[in-house]
Design a protein that fits this description.
This protein has about 190 residues and is α+β, with helices and mostly antiparallel strands. Helix content is about 20%, strand content about 45%. A hairpin with a 7-residue loop joins strand 10 and strand 11. Helix 1 packs across helix 2. This is DUF1007 family protein.
Length: about 190
């Protein structure tokens, strides 16, 4: 029965029907390591809302230990692949033109404080030179089934040798399903 709940849950995640409001809330953040002006990859973190997290735990945690291990983890990751077709809602622009990432993959997943978290690796199709142009990042579900909300720490965490010369600027989004854009550029 729990498998059925899980299957139905992920079937709903893939539904393309127009929904009036979000059903799942996710706190999101990008992490950028800027050791050179050209950036090729980003990391991202999702923290799912408690209700959804506990529902997924109930559906996949066969041994009831509060974690996803072994086969449980593999089956959860397989279910989350349904979001891959939407690049896990990664939204990117270079110089205000939308770009598609080369790939977005789940690099880790787990439970902490009753919340499912996952980390993503975002590879850009071509490197972006932040000294010459702006890279804009957001998360957004155009169907508005997921509410992608910047984490309390902000939508972007910078690190690396050039982090001090880079300027992230938040901008309210105009697009449905996107709350905030973060525009990143670096000045030498």
């Amino acid at each position: 029965m729990f498998r059925l709940i899980g299957v139905l849950w992920f079937a709903l995640l893939g539904a393309n029907s127009a929904l009036a409001h979000p059903h799942i809330w996710v706190d999101v953040q990008y992490q950028a390591v800027v050791d050179s002006p050209a950036i090729e990859t980003l990391n991202a973190t999702w923290s799912w809302d408690v209700f959804t997290s506990l529902s997924l735990l109930e559906a996949y945690d066969e041994n009831a230990d509060g974690q996803f291990t072994g086969n449980e983890r593999a089956e959860l990751l397989e279910g989350l692949q349904n979001l891959k077709k939407d690049d896990y809602f990664v939204q990117l622009k270079v110089a205000d033109k939308a770009i598609k990432p080369q790939s977005v993959t789940i690099s880790d997943v787990g439970m902490k404080d009753k919340m499912l978290w996952m980390t993503l690796k975002v590879r850009l199709a071509t490197p972006v030179n932040l000294e010459k142009t702006t890279l804009s990042m957001a998360f957004g579900d155009p169907e508005y089934y997921f509410a992608m909300v910047p984490s309390e720490a902000g939508l972007l965490r910078l690190s690396g040798a050039l982090a001090e010369i880079c300027t992230p600027i938040e901008e309210d989004a105009k697009e449905l399903g996107i709350e905030t854009w973060i525009n990143l550029s670096c000045q030498p």
